[in-house]
Amino acid sequence: MCSGSTTSSDRPPGGTRDALDGNPVQTGMVQTTHGARISAPGGPEALVWEPIDLPAPRTGEVLVEVAAAGVNYIDVYQRNGLYPLPLPAVLGLEGAGTVTAVGPDVVDLAAGDRVAWLDVPGSYAGAVLAPAARLVRVPDGLDLELAAAAMLQGATAHYLITDTYPLRAGETALVHAAAGGVGLLLVQMARAAGARVLATAGTPEKAALARGAGAHEVVLYRDEDVVAAVEHLVGPHAVDVVYDGVGAATFEASLDVLRPRGMLVSFGNASGPVPPVAPITLSRKGSLYLTRPTLAHYVASTEELRRRAEAVLAAVAAGTLQVRIGLRLPMEQVARAHERLEARQTTGKVVLQP
Predict the structure, then answer these.
(1) Measured between alpha carbons, how far is 92 from 17 in angstroms, rounded to an integer?
(2) Fewer CB within 10 Å: N-end or C-end of the chain?
């Protein structure tokens, strides 16, 4: 964990830190570090830990020494080509660290500031160049690793609960994959909103995590028919909203438990993309609403990004929102992190450390 940083002016030419451990080495105007890069879409083996060069910050940019980076399913989609990227590319979008240098015209950040982010490409690295407008200050006393772990999944759960379907007290919500990183946060936020929270999980151990986060009832989807189990708990067609990050494997069940004019919020594809849906299907099942939101549209402006992220980080710092880090790995083992995530062998958040 990095608690501070060294600016280029403090280092002799050539730098004083070894880039082999992922930490940056300053050479003239170019900083050498290591990052996890792909040259073509593929499996986890496509990720190669190799040297990368970063230029000095330009106008509006900030150079940050990375203390921790979060692993998210969007990284998998970018790696396997579902979400195409210009290649080669260093993966990773989320992290936290310490500012080491700022570019021209950056006035609200300075070397030594602790910051976090959720949409900065190249975050699987020892250092990252980030737009200053996409950085959020980390509250005093909040560990940088926890800040990194909370950013993307926390902001995702926040917009789903507060904006996509503003959940109200007394409503019933079903959260799929409730022991995952987003799932555990959704359960906590839904419970705090006063909703009745139903959850699905794959194992008794994961079910226990979901209950610990506040789920009233948990369905073991591998052992039970989800629709029948939910109907037994709350009656047929009685769920107001389903938050579904699983995708193909849960889509039909999600529709079938909704009340008339209920909403399915399909926000992920962990089990594969959902096939095309005929609009008449939604009509026949009760004039249902279906939405496929993405975080980018809910943090499009600097103001909205910081408002949302600061609310999440403040809750984590206050202890009212718990972030569970289920797996920590050295950043050079990022391929292993992707393997575990895709095999659904993780709970909570996966974090990489340079």
Answers:
(1) 23
(2) N
Q: Are strands 196-201 and 172-175 parallel, antiparallel or unpaired?
A: parallel
One-letter amino acid at 179 equals: A
Residue type, 200: T
Q: Where are the domains of the chain?
A: 8-150+306-353, 168-292
**Rounded CA separation 307/141 (Å):** 19
* CATH tag, 168-292: 3.40.50.720
State the burial class of residue 187 (Cβ atoms within 10 Å of its Cβ: 0-12, 13-18, 19+): buried
Question: In this structure, how many other beta carbons lie within 10 angstroms of the beta carbon of residue 20?
Answer: 11
Whole-number pLDDT of residue 271: 83
For the chain, give the mean pLDDT.
91
What's the pLDDT at 141? 94
pLDDT tens, position by position, 4-35:
333 333 332 233 333 334 444 444 467 899 99
Conformation bin of residue 235: beta by default, left when phi > 0, alpha when psi is -120 to 50: left
In the prediction, which pLDDT does 15 show?
33
Exposed / middle / buried, residue 2 (Cβ in 10 Å: 0-12, 13-18, 19+)? buried
**CA atoms within 13 Å, Cβ hemisphere of 184:** 22
Mean pLDDT is lowest, of 12-16, 44-48, 327-331, for 12-16
CA distance 332 to 249: 32
Give pLDDT, residue 29.
Answer: 67
Percent of the chain with pLDDT over 70: 92
In the prediction, which pLDDT does 31 show? Answer: 86
Cβ contacts of residue 51 below 8 Å, gap of 6+?
A: 19, 32, 33, 34
How far apart CA 288 and CA 263 sit, in angstroms, is 6
